Amino acid sequence: MPLEHIGQRSVFHEIQLQIRNHILENNLKPGDLLPPAAELASRLGVSQATLREALRALEALGILEIKHGVGTVIRAYDLTPLLESLSFSLLFERDNLRQMVLIREAMEAGSVPEVVRQISDADLRELEAILEQMAEADNPRDLERQFHRTLYRCLDNPLLLQFIDIFWLIGHNLADRSMISDVGKGPLWEAHAPIVETLRARDANAAVQAIHHHFDGIKYQLNGWQRDGTGDGTRDRTRGRTT
Ligand SMILES: [Zn+2]
Q1: Centre of ligand 1 from the C-alpha of residue 184, in Å
Q2: What is the pLDDT of residues 76-103, one digit of tens each?
Q3: What does pTM read for this prediction?
Q4: For position 47, which CATH number holds?
């Protein structure tokens, strides 16, 4: 029986490889259609049921979209499915999470000088409005995401914004599982207000420092998670596996 399972998996793998090759060789673009399922199945020499399963796996990876009544469409490049599964595995690996915070810090600190040059007055006013809400909101979690999306959107880099989203999602999940505590509104405002101040002053060096200062707070919070009882690694893993 195990041999049969391996065989089935390699059939899926082979179908997926061939479909990827078909997309590349025919230079298919987002929105283009794959050949109809019956034709694909016969060209690949597999049953339509097997083909459908392989297509569903590619859909889960964000490569294709199966539209009923239309066909199988090539999707625009989108990191979301990949990042969502990444965030799930990160929930159980504290070291990964720590590494991801460092990557995000490097990414934001590296990008902020260009923001200083490009950000519009309208975006600055919006950041200030978000700050005001941070100081007042009882549950300011979503404001943190809004802040960073607004901060970097002038760079016109959707991948950077997606990365911010997924990081926010991870934090959200951890807080829901009481693995880290939510940041209160005071500390949240204090972490973000200096960033806006440096942007207003159009001071790139100070902006980089303000970003590092912001992440110092997050790293402190993560260390606390590893230090205190809520972040006991063994228990987290057990909890993760049983849910
Ligand atoms: Zn932040």
Answers
A1: 12
A2: 766 666 666 666 666 666 677 778 788 8
A3: 0.65
A4: 1.10.10.10
